[in-house]
């Protein structure tokens, strides 16, 4: 292997790109977790629903982007329905009950997916406009679609940041993240705030699942692995902080990639060791709202 | 009868029948009611391997329907346990089947870790066990037993011939990549065994935590290393993602990709062009041009509405093997030594081609060389004929 700098540059790109993907999923998780105090184990299942919707709608409409444009609003509506029927009863309950309920959701959603689409492994084609690769070295090329994912993630991150910094909803979200009881006492309709946040969280997970589907494979239980990584990101970044989720995702993405490069025997441990270190240094994460 | 009339009691008839059967050396059920056999499926019906568990079960049922709904003349009762491919639950699940449900036959399972936890218990209890997939070498090596059979493959079998295939294609420096777990390691070792013996060198081995599927860092390293070829084992979702990422990284068409057939099983529809030209070795291919395979594929599709695959074939062959054994003892599952002897000697007419059991109870079978062309599995030829697992450490 040539130990030249382009190699490490490409690896750094890989890490950042993986970080972007993690951010998309983790941002929704951190919102629901931080603002509503719900430990939402079903977040990975929403991500999986997104991937299946991408598979289904891209096939049915023949256009991936149209699929995304249809799929995200539909799933947000379904998410809101779910919130009204189920999650609304959990807000003031024990974390254990939330874990039970959301774990149950994983099983139910998983079973529904199997009933609807079977247990096969599916793939989603990269949309033709973005199908090319940019040659970097004589053997290595960088897929355009991965650059598109990064761009979509940056746009989402900026959009979220603007939402939280400059809008009334964002103000309530920030306030709620640091002191929920006080916000309630100030007369904010927490019920509606939570609905909005939950819808946003579901939308982000589904969007991530759809956008990532062409570089992933689509299969039952695909949400489980991403869920664990997302929790790591949220904990490292600080629960409830979008900014934290972003930098946490970057850190984890890079650590994971360079872990695989430098210590391949222990690649699986690097991320968790990093999480432990961060927690020793800052027990509530890098960007804890409080 | 000698002309003397008498009215025998029911008990006397039964006793006489039993005595006659014993004297004639016939199995207990040869006279009287239809023999019954209780078969316990211990397979994954949920999780990552649910499709495999279902295809094995449906393949088995298809064969039994062809045989008129019985196996070797015995009526069959089924119990199903979802083993979730979870090794920690394996002991409980197999104990439930063997001791509580008191099944006569265990059919299981898919996951190599689960089957290794099952084996000691069924060895101890002596319950006839047929493994319809899990390839852990130990099952027909150190853990082999008179009552344990396998209708699929040992992890060594489809991979050992691949070393020579790669060398013959002129690749002498190869990078290996797989998941770091029992099946992955065994497959890799088998490939290395023939590849290094033939003069090949391993550029680097990449072992990923199961079921990690973020491959970019490794693909970048492979691109920088420029080996002659890559040998990879992944399966299911991981395999599809690996094939797509490999192509997206620009390696497809640059560095040829080889592997055991599991790499491309069930993922060709999703992979599209990215899978073109991948060469694999396996004991089966849907493209096999024999009448039984054609019929099998049609019937499986008609019965289930799904495409058949290698796992469905293994389920089908499991039923054939059991039927052949039971036929020899007129359905009497308790005649164990005759039953096992008949199963050992059986010729299994399979969609993969007719095969026999080795002394260690693993199939002796041809390994085919396959290539993906136009999104379909295509057979290039037989990579190695009558491949028999070395069965190191088996005393049978």
Description:
The complex is a heterodimer of chains A (290) and B (396). Chain A is mainly α and 290 residues long. Chain A has one domain. Helix content of chain A is 73%, strand content 3%. In chain A, the strands form 2 sheets. A two-stranded antiparallel ribbon of chain A has the order 1-4. Chain A has a two-stranded antiparallel ribbon with strand order 2-3. In chain A, helix 1 crosses helix 9. The model of chain A has no long low-confidence stretch (mean pLDDT 90). The termini of chain B are far apart. In chain B, 40% of the residues lie in helices and 21% in strands. The N terminus of chain B is likely disordered. Classes of the chains: A mainly alpha (290), B alpha/beta (396). The interface between A and B is large, with 48 and 45 residues.
Distance between the termini of chain B: 48 Å
Q: What fold name goes in the CATH topology slot of the largest domain in chain B? A: Rossmann fold
H/E order of the elements of chain A? HHHHEEEHHHHEHHH
- Spatial order of the strands forming the largest sheet of chain A: 1-4
| CATH 2nd-level architecture of the largest domain in chain B | 3-Layer(aba) Sandwich
Give the number of helices of chain A.
11
Rg of chain A (CA only): 19 Å
